[in-house]
Amino acid sequence: MTTVKEAVRLLEDKLGNKVMECKTPEPRRTYVLIKSGYHRDAISLLLETLSETGISTITGTDLGNEIELNYHIRCRGSVITIKNRVPKEKPQIMTITDLIPGATLYEREVFDLLGVIFEGHPHLERLVLSDDWPEGSYPLRKDWDPTVLEEDAPNLRGQPSVMNGGDVEGATSPVVNVVMGPQHPALHEPERFSFKIDGEVVVDVEPRLGYVHRGIEKAAERLMFFQDVYLIERICGICNAAHALCFSQAVESIGNIEIPSRARYLRTIIHELNRIHSHLLLLGVTGFELGYETLFQYVWRDREPVLDVMEMITGNRILTDFITIGGVRRDLKPETHEKIKKPMKKLKKRMKFYKNIFEEDPTLRLRTKGVGILKPSSAKKMCVVGPVARGSGISLDIRRDDAYAAYDEIPFNVITYKDCDSWARLMVRVEEVVESIDIINYALDHLPSGPYRVKVPRRQPEGESVSRVEAPRGELLHYVKSDGSAYPYRVKVRSPTLANIISFREIIRGSYIADIPAALISLDPCFSCTDRMSFVEVNNGRKWHWSLEDIKRLKKRS
Amino acid sequence: MPIDLVFFLRVLIFPGFVFLLAFSLFCDWFERKIRARMQNRMGPSYTGPAGLLQPIADYIKLLTKEDIIPAQATRLLFTVAPVLAVSLFVFTFYYIPIDGLNIIPNSSFEGDLILVLVLITIAEFTMFLSGWSSTNPYSGIGATRVLTQFLGYDIPLIVFAIGPAFLSGSLSISTIARKQTVPFVALTPWTFILFIITLQAELGKDPFDIPHAETEIVAGYVTEFSGRRLAFIEIAKDIQVVLGATLVTVLFLGGPYGPVLFGSSAVWYTFWFIVKVLAVIFLLEYVGSVAARLRIDQVVRANWRWMMPISLLVLALTIVCQPLLSPLVG
Amino acid sequence: MTNRLRLPTMIREIASSLLKRPFTRKYPKVKVDVPEGFRGRHILYPEKCISCGLCERDCPANAIELVETADKRLPVFHLDLCIFCFQCADSCPRNAIEPSTLFEMASTKKEELISKPKVLILSHKNVLKEDDKNDV
Question: Span A4-128: which CATH code?
């Protein structure tokens, strides 16, 4: 089996002088700068030589005269970043969606926020910004002027990218377009899905993201590194520790900061507590979606002790603000170990009960077994991550492959199920909760003594870093680039739900309408993580002017 | 039927209209409290002692809200259907002996069981019409689902209801109730269990909760209703539940007849009636809490492939057993 | 696929729930015990403050403002902007800021959401009263 090192060397040999730069600043991270236009050769070479390759995301950075595109290709535990630069006046590049179908949404995101045109993309449209966003205004460019939005935005009640009904090949009756969202009781966050329905069967679906886009990537460039941790943590309420951890790791690798061992273990504990809380939330919500209110109430009742433990350790139930650059912010007193272990023991017993329910209960099985099948081959093509991949038998877990925090010293199992349906994805999560409880117990028993935090300078040296963690929903990737000041030059967040939402189309095609909630909830969509930008409220033609004034007023403090 | 003060009191107050409404609201509270306790939480607790006034508070709130009619809805049907639903359900109660006698004394006749079942069907149909007249795609889907489910399960329901009629040799509800010196639940337990399950489908409770499946079709057929009209539909739904439980009581549990310990028999009969109906509601809630919601195609398949043949089988079994059981029948 | 629901585990579970006390905590009738270290309302020790302004500079939400009082410049916390991360407590070189366990901060008046120094001293002694909220 070719190793990553060999593959990179092969790349250098084959492409010769087209490879302009190749560095490996830390283990399992390689950055290769390719001459403009040859990225397709590099990527197809990597796909041929290395197995289990997929794309994590595509980052676009404005470098002044050029726009740099980073293609983060993951392979087992490593990330190979293929860099490519295009001139800003003519930002065009060939698409890679024919090589890796999973890159569709990432290219659309770069197109939306930076204005890079991907030639040959099947469906190059806006992904995160609203449909009446002014043309030619790309927020992530360094020279973007927010005042351009102060004029009256065109009052476009215009048709968003909805596929109209009409005839579809193979349909038995005229196909009807049913739009679900952005407000719908089945969705926890606003999202619009346009379903093409033939009778009771779903023929196709088009998701439209961006309803909770808050401008975090842009805002992160205006705050200092240590302040950014708080901002990044608030991307998502459920997986907040994962975001903070990922970002802190990225900055620590840029600044070559070594954190103490105790901090690594404490980070692991909070990370796993986060995972338990998130999975229990999802299991309860599944019960609710499927009409099983009793299960919903029971699971959420059993989730309360987890939140109480987090409150005891970090000071808050949900937004923990515990992990920071250089370690953690508080210490864990030895008296609290027992207070953590007791609820965990109780929870472990309850998880046995829930496992029983999921395996035995006939109505649950009727609703989730055989529903939302995602074949392993499609899963690999779409580059899905997390429990969605593990439910289709693909053993992909960052904690094992690309160990971070204390995971290289803690033994645990990676749970996979071969059934490929919604039931499998839910069972993966049920068992992962039990695994997390074991990890927490092990970490508490082997907690090293010593400092829990190191002092970190405000300025970070020049550099860039890709950091990955296994968030409850899958692989979370942060790319941070620093230019030597106290403010990051670029922060890119790719949350796991964005990777998984592509597979929704595959999953739902051919299923009944009534299976939509069961299939969607098994993906565990968290749209707060997925959308991330925009201070604009230009729907309804409301004047942007007012909002900008408000923000200016809030900024003035003395 | 002498029409005098007693008649009016019976029809309007007790055990007539006012009592029925109050009882339905009480049963609503009971249902919510039981469901909450099964889910290990409190249920209504703050409005009135132990939350007893919660249903009334809900209805008063609904009455104070704006009543919107969608521009494209069929006005007449939209307005009339909820009221019709409530009226039909209430009227059906007039054939149930609540305190030992029907509300209008001596109004029972042979065949009033059929009348009651037919009225229930028509009332449910008006609920469907209310959804259909909203011209909202969600209401439309919800209304068609209600009809599919209801009409489908109506047939086994009627077939099961014939069982007790056969055992007691009469199609009059009062007679069926009176003849149960041994309640029929002990004589035909299988009919009882299956009747409960079919009733869950009729009433639209879990696992046949599809008409109210908010996670799929917003609020189903009540999506466009608000204010007064929604209050009517909610009351109709509550009375429907009580009516279903009452049907089970009179067919299987001996109706209001039970031991009269002292004093007036009417009071005791009402007491037993209330106790038995509450027990049935408890059972219905229990069955509902234990299961998730089935998909519409699974519901329909369960009906036509299983419930229908089983109902005919059970009826045949009852007919065969009837000579053996006739000595036990009062 | 049958209509007979054979669910022994869940049936037993529901029966046992009926006999248990509800899990709901009857807040506000019952006082909630908040653990030590909870990030509630800020406490300021004005005698320790040296008016360096690091808290104001480091706040990620720009929620702190240094105002002139009788003796020196003290921080004022805008609770409607604050995200309760307590970076201010970490940045303060004299440990003059601390989180308290007071969490009942909801208000219908915007003025009450500006935590002024006198209020912070009172909250430190846990005697925050309704009419104290508006004093400087």
Answer: 3.30.460.80
